[in-house]
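Notes to self after the Tuesday call (sharing in case useful).
The group wants a holo model before anyone commits to mutagenesis around the pocket. I volunteered. Ligand is magnesium ion. Logging inputs and output together so the record is complete.
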Amino acid sequence: MNSTYMETQHLIHGINMILVHYGEIGLKGKNRAIFEKCLIDNIKKALGKVKIYKEYGRIIIEDGKGAEEKLKKIPGIENFSLVHIADLNIEEIKKLALEVAKNRKFATFKIDARRANKNFPYNSMQINEIVGKEIKEKLKKEVDLEKPDLTIYIEIGDKNAFLYTEKVKGIGGLPVGSQGKVVSLISGGIDSPVASWLMMKRGCKVVFIHFYNERLVASPKKLEEIIKILNHYQLQTKAYFIPFADLQFEIIKSVPARYRMIVYRRVMTKIANEIAKREKARAIITGDSVGQVASQTLENLNCIYEASSLPIFTPLIGMDKKEIIEMAKKIGTYEISIRPYEDCCSFMVAKHPVTRANLEKIKEMEEKVIIDIDAIIKKSEIKKYSL
Ligand code: ATP
Ligand code: MG
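Result:
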C-alpha cells in the first residue's frame, strides 16, 4: 500500500465524503501516476489529516469537512462534490437515490449516470431509466432532461457507486510540482501576481523575487501579503526580497532617465537568472502585456529579454488590463495590489521614457553600471511560507 493514499476499496456510506475529479492530467500515459500522486500529496498538504482513496480518474476524500474552500484553490482539480456512496448493486443505488431525492425540494429531475466500470451489468442509459422510474413513481416527480430542478449524478466506480447532486468547480489545470520550478519577478502591481498564479495553474512551483528600495519601504509587507494569498494555491513558497537602493543609485548615476527603466529591468533579469540557476528553475516569469506601459513595447521587451539566458514566459502577454483585473479579483490579490506602494522605480524614471530602445545603445550604457550579482543576492532576505 502506498503511504500517501490507498487504492479504492469498499467504502462505508460515510458523511462528508468528497469525490474529486481531475481534468487534464498532463503528458498522460506513464506519467499519469506521477500526476495523480502529486495531486493527492497536494490535497493532503492542504487538508491535513484525511483519508484519501483513488480510482481511475477520481479521488475520494473521507471526512473532508470544511474542505471546500481549500479544494477550490488546488490546481489540477476540475470539480468536486459531496457524495453519497452505495454498493455496486442496482437495488442499493435505487434506494440511495430515493433517499437523496426525498430530502430535496424539486418538481422536475433527471438522472445523469456514468459507467466507468464496464463490468457493471447495466449501462448508463439503463441506470438512468431504472433509477428515474423509481423516483418518478415513488415521489411523483416529473423527468425534465433539458432544465431539471434537480440532477442526480451517478457514477459507477471500481468498487462503489457515487451519487451526488452538485458539482463545485475547481480551478482546473495541473497539480503544482508536476512541471518543475520557475522564478517569478513580482512587483507591487496587479499583473505579476496574476502571471505567477497562471504558472501555478500549469503545474509549476513558483519561487518569487521582489526588488524594493529599502530607503523608501521599511519592509515590503504588501508583497508578503500578496505572496501569502498566492501560497494558498501552491501550499509552500519561497521568496527572495532584495534591497535594491544602491543599485538604483548606480543606474541613476550612469544612465539617462529615458533609458533607466530598460537597464533597470535588464539588471533584475540578470539577477533572476542567477537565482534561477541556484534554485534549479527552468524559466523566468514576468507580468508583461504588450503595449501596457512604456517598458512593454515589443522593441523594449526585446531589449529586456535579451538579458536572459533562460526563457522568459509572460502568461499575460496577450491579455487586456480588464481581463487581468478580473483574474486578480478571483485569485484574491487585487485588493492588496491596488494599495499604494512606493514602487521602487517610480521616482527614477522619466515622464516620457524611450519606447523604441536600441539594444546596442542600452548595452553601452549598461557597461557603466557596476553590479555585483553575488553580493546583491547575499543581501536578500529569503522567506518561506506554508499553510
Ligand atoms: P505589474 O502590475 O506586475 O507591476 P506593470 O504593468 O506595472 O506590471 P512594470 O512595472 O513595467 O509593469 O513591470 C513589468 C514587470 O517587471 C512586472 O510584471 C514584473 O514581472 C517585473 N517587475 C517590475 N518591478 C519589479 C520589482 N520591483 N521586483 C520584481 N519584479 C518587478
Ligand atoms: Mg509595476
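Two things stood out.
The first strand starts at residue 6 and ends at 7.
The first helix runs from residue 32 to 47.
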